[in-house]
Amino acid sequence: MDTAGSFLPIIAALPFLGALFPGLMIQAGRNTCAAFTAAPTILALVLLLICVPAVMRGEVLQFQLAWLPDLGLNVNFMLDGLGLLFAGLILGIGLLIILYARFYLSREDPMGQFYTYLLLFQGAMVGIVLSDNILLLLVFWELTSLSSFLLIGYWKHLPEGRQGARMALVVTGTGGLAMIAGMLILGNIVGSYDLSVILTQKDAIQADPMYLPALLLILVGCFTKSAQFPFHFWLPHAMAAPTPVSAYLHSATMVKAGLFLMARMWPVLAGTPEWFYIVATTGLITMLIGAKIALFKDDLKALLAFSTVSHLGLITMLLGFGTKMAAVAAVFHIINHATFKAALFMSAGIVDHETHTRDIKRLGGLRHLMPITFVIVVFAALSMAGIPLLNGFLSKEMMLEEAAHTVWQGNHWIVPALATLGALFSVAYSLRYIVHVFGGPVRDDYPSKPHDPGFGMWAAPAFLVVLVVAIGLAPFLAEPLVRTSAGAVTGGALPEFHLKIWHGITPALFMSAAAVLGGAILLALHAPLMRLWLATPRPEAKTMFDAVTRAATHASRAFTNGVHNGALTRNGATFTVTVLAAGWFAWVGGETLPATREMLPITALPAIGWMLLIVATVGLVAFHRNRFLALMLMGIVGLIVSLGFVYFSAPDLALTQISVEVVTIILLLLALNFIPRTTPVESSPARRMRDALIAVGGGVAVAGLTYAILISDFAFESISAYHLANSYKGGGGNNVVNVILVDFRGFDTYGEIIVLGIAALVIFALTDTVLKGAGGRWLANWDQAKYREAGDRHPLMMVVATRVMMPIALMVGAYIFLRGHNEPGGGFIAGLIVAIAFLMQYMASGFAWAESRQRVTYHATIGVGVLIASLTGLGAWLAGKPFLTSAYGYIKLPPLEKFEWATAMAFDTGVFLTVVGAVMLALNSLSSMARRAGETVNIFPMDINPARTDADGQDEGGK
After folding, report:
1. What pLDDT shows up at residue 954?
2. How many CB atoms lie within 10 A of CB 412?
3. DSSP three-state, residue 568
4. Is 464 in contact with 94 (CB distance < 8 Å)?
5. SS3 of residue 420 by DSSP
6. Beta bridge partners of 901
C-alpha cells in the first residue's frame, strides 16, 4: 500500500463525515450550510487530484484492510483510470450541484436536509467506483438506492415525488438483489471477492457453467440502475425531484453506476456471444425507445429524462459491442454526456425557476428574455445533438463508426441503420429544446415574467458548457484521460487512436449527416407527428408498474394473512408442519448413521421421573383451561427437568433451571391476578384434532431424532473435547460450562442479557401504556374486596421468615457468583437467587414498602449491567483479542492466600446486574397494575403486628 493509496479510504469517507454538518450548520445560514457541504467534497477532490499523476502513469493505487476475511469481506479500495474518471465526475459535478442548489432551493425547502442526503449519496457513489471488493461494492450499491430514494422524494408534499421515489427504490432495489446473487456466483467461481483478483480470471469465469447465470443476474442489476429497457420507466418519474437532484443523479452519477459496473466487469464478462447479444441489443433498443419518446414530451425535464435513457442505451450498446475501440467511444461519451446533460438539466431548472413552468407549450421566445440561459442551452443541446465542434459530435461519430462495422445475426446493415435512426431522433429533440423553448416571439402569458437568474445559478452550467466547447475544439485535452480510463476498461493495450475533429470521408460521416438532416426534417414535421403520437394507443409503463405492484401486494397480503394471521396456533402449526416436511425430506434423501451405542439399562429412579414428567405434561394438556392448575403443572414439569439435569451430572443447568422456574412461576402467579381464571373454548373440535395430530407428529419426530442421535456417533467430532482441553488454560476456569458462557460463547451470553433487558423494558412499556389507556380505567374500577379472600395479605410468619432468609440468600448468591468460574454457579444463577430473595421481600411486605427501601432504579441496574459487560468485551478488543476474550492471573492480598483473578468476573457482574434488574422491573410493572386496581399501599411491613396499637393503623395495613 503506497502513500497515495492511503488517501482512498479518506476520499470515500469524507462525504459521509461531511453529511453530519449540513443539518447543524443550516442554523448559521444558507451560505454557511452550503460552504460546509462543499468543504468535504473539495477536500476529497483535492486528494483525488493528488493521485492523478500516478494513475496517469498507468499505476493502480490500492488500499487493503482485512475486515471480515473469513467471509471475504475486506475494506479494499482501488483507483485506476476508470475509477479516476468516475470519481472525478462524481466529486466535480457534485461540487457544481452544491453551488447550484444553494440558489435553486427556496427558503421553504429544508436545505440542511437536502445537503445531508446529497452527501450521503455522493459517498455511496464514490464508494462504488473505488471499491476493490465486490461485497463492499454491494454495500455501497444499496446505499445509493436508499439515498437516492431520499433525494427523489425530497419534496414530500408532492404525490408524484413520493411515487417516483418508491418506483426508483423498487426497481433499482430489486435489481440490486439480483446483482448480489450474480456477484456471489462470480466470487465463488474465482474463489475471491476482490475485484483485482476477479479481473484476472477471464478464462476461468467464461469457461464455468455458471457464467451465464452470473452474467444475467449482474446485468439485471446494471440495467435497472442505468434505466435500460425494459426497466427504463422509473427514470422519467424520478424527475419529480428538485432539479439539482435530476442534474446530479440522472446525468453523472446514479444512472452511470450501471454503466460503471459493466465497464468494470468488461475484461472478464465481455467478448462472448451472450454478452454481445444481451448487452448490445438491450442498449440499442433503449437508445431508440428513449429517443423516440423524448421527441414527444412537452415537459422539459421529461424530455431530458428520456434523452438520458437514450444516451445511456447508446453507451450500453458500445460496451456490448465488445471491441476495444467501442470501449474507448463509450468512455469518451460518458465524459461528454455528463457535461452537456448536467448543463441542460440545470438550464431546465433555471427556466422552471424563472417562468414557474416546464411545459414547452407555454414557453417560447425566451432567447430575448434569458440570453445567458439561451447561450448555455444552445451549446449544450447542440452537443447532445452531435453537431460539429462540440464534444458530443466527437463521441457520436465514434459510436456511428463502431456501429457501421458491427454485424448482428449475419446482418451488416441493421445495427448501423438503427444507430443512425437513434442519432436522428437525438438531433430532433435537441433542436426542439432550443427552438420551441427559446425560439419564436416573446409571449405575454408566461406564468411568471422570465429573466436570467443571478450568477450563482448559471455559473455551474456555464462552466460545463465551457468544457463542452473546449473538448469539442481541442479534443486532445481529453485524450490522456480517455486513454487511461479506456485502458482500465479493456484491461490491456488499446489500438492506436487519436481524438480529433476530422476523420476523413467515412461511413460515420454520411450517417451523421443523414441524422442531422433527418432530425431537422423531423422537427419541422413535429406538429402532425405529435397529433399522430397522441392518437396512437401505446402501453404506459407506469400503468403496468402500478398493476404489477398492486397484484404483488394483494398476493403477498393474502399469503401473509393466510399463514401469519396473528394466531399463535396457526404460527405454531405452520412452523411445525414445515419443519416436519423438511426433516422428512432430509431423512428419506440422506443416509442414516448406523447404531453404534448400546442402550443403558433402565433403573427405577429415571423411570419414575419419566412417568411423572409424562403425567404432568398430559395433565397440563388436559387441564390447560384452568390457568392456575396449568401453572402448577408447568412448575412440576420444570422441577422434574431440573432433577433430570442433576441425574445426568449437569449441576449448572439444574441450578439455572430451578432458579428460572421459581422466578417465572412467582411472576406468572402475580400476572394471573389480572386475567380470568379459566381460558374460554375458542377452537372447534376439528381444529383441536388437527392441532393434536400436528403436535403428536412433532413430538414423535423429535423423539425419533433424539433416539437416532443417542444410539449413533456424531457425524463430526464433538467440540466438547476442545472446551475441556482449553477451559483452564484459555479461560482460566475449571467449570467448563461457565467458561463457555463467559468466554468461548461470551458473545451469545452478551446478546442474551441484552434481550433479557429489552424484554423487561418492553414489559414496563406495555404495562405503562395499558395503565394510561382503557386498561387503566378498567383496573381503576376493579373491586378488590370482591376478590380478596384473606384479610392478612402480609402475614407475620412470612415477614419473619423472609427477613431471616434475606442475608442467607444474599450470601448464597455471592458464594454462587464467586465460585462460578471453577464450580457450578456464575452470574446468571447468582442473579436469579438474589432476585428470588428480593421477590420474597416484596411478596412478604408489599411492593411499595420494599421499594421505598431500595435506592437504585431497575432501569439503571439493567443499563449498568449491559454497560459493564460491553466494557469487558471492549477491553479485550483494545488488547488485540477477539471481543470478550478472557484474561486471568494470580494475585496475593495479605492475609489471603494467592487466588485467581479473571476478567470473566467483570462480565459475570454485568450478567448478574442485568438479571436482577430485569426480574425486578417485571415485578415493578405487575405491581403498578395492582396499585392501579386499588390495592392498598403498605406503610408497615406486615398487616397484623401485636406490638402495634390501633392508633398506629393496626388493622389498616396501609393507607
Report:
1. 46
2. 12
3. helix
4. no
5. helix
6. 889
Cα 152 to Cα 242: distance, rounded to the nearest angstrom: 8
Candidates 259, 190, 195, 254; CA nearest to 63 is: 195
Tell me which residue of 847, 498, 507 sits closest to 666, measured CA to CA: 847
β-pairing verdict for 66-68 and 73-74 = antiparallel
Query: Following DSSP, what letter does each residue of 9-48 receive, concatenated?
Result: HHHHHHHHHHTTSHHHHGGG-HHHHHHHHHHHHHHHHHHH
CB neighbours of 64 closer than 8 A, spacing ≥ 6?
1, 74, 75, 76, 132
Retrieve residue 706's grid coordinates: 433424539
Q: What pLDDT does residue 687 have?
A: 84
Q: What are phi and psi of 38, to 5 degrees?
A: -70, -30
Who's near 771: CB < 8 A, 6+ residues apart? 779, 928, 929, 932
Taking CA atoms, 639 is separated from 566, 609, 629, 647, 657, in Å, by 32, 10, 15, 12, 8
Cis peptide before 895 (omega within 30 of 0): yes
Query: What's the pLDDT tens digit per position in 437-471?
Result: 998 888 888 888 898 998 989 999 999 999 999 99
Residue 775: all three cell numbers together: 386498561
Torsion angle, CA of 541/543/546/549, rounded to 10 degrees? -60
50: cell is 493528488
**Phi and psi for 44 in degrees, rounded to 5?**
-65, -40
**Distance, C-alpha 686 to centroid of its chain:** 44
Q: Closest by alpha carbon to 116, among 198, 40, 182, 183? A: 40
> Which contacts of 606-609 are long-range, i.e. CB under 8 A and separated by 24 or more positions?
606/644, 606/647, 609/640, 609/643, 609/644, 609/647
Q: Cell triple for residue 715?
A: 457425524
Distance CA 658, CA 816 (A): 14
Secondary structure of residue 79 in the 3-state scheme: strand
Q: What are phi and psi of 604, to 5 degrees?
A: -65, -45
Q: Which secondary structure element, helix H or strand E, spans residue 690, and what is its range?
A: helix 685-710
Taking phi first (over 0 means left), then psi (-120 to 50 degrees means alpha), and beta for anything else, what does residue 732 get? left
Continuous segment of H or E residues that includes residue 747: helix 746-772
Q: What is the separation of C-alpha 382 from the centre of its chain, rounded to a whole number of angstroms?
A: 42
Residues of the chain with pLDDT under 70: 1-2, 252, 771, 773-794, 847-848, 851-852, 854-855, 892-893, 896-900, 929-959
CA 44 to chain centre: 25
In this prediction, residue 399 carries a pLDDT of: 93
Question: Are 348 and 377 within 8 A, CB to CB?
Answer: no
**C-alpha cell belonging to residue 310:** 437514450
pLDDT at 957: 44
CA distances from 224 to 50, 120, 170, 255, 259 (A): 34, 21, 10, 9, 11
Whole-angstrom distance, CA of residue 593 vs CA of residue 713:
8
DSSP type of residue 68 = E
pTM over cut 0.90: no
Note the Cα 214 to chain centre separation in Å: 23
Burial class (CB in 10 A: 0-12, 13-18, 19+), 245: buried
How far apart CA 316 and CA 290 sit, in angstroms, is 13
Set of cell numbers at residue 536:
396512437
Q: Can you tell me the distance from the alpha carbon of 921 to that of 458, in angstroms, rounded to the nearest whole number? A: 63
Best CA proximity match to 247, nearest among 374, 357, 337: 337
For every residue of 856-919, DSSP letters joined together read S-HHHHHHHHHHHHHHHHHHHHHTTS-TT---EEEE--TTSPPEEEETHHHHHHHHHHHHHHHH
Task: Supply the pLDDT for residue 43.
Answer: 95
CA separation for the pair 532, 287 (Å, rounded) = 21
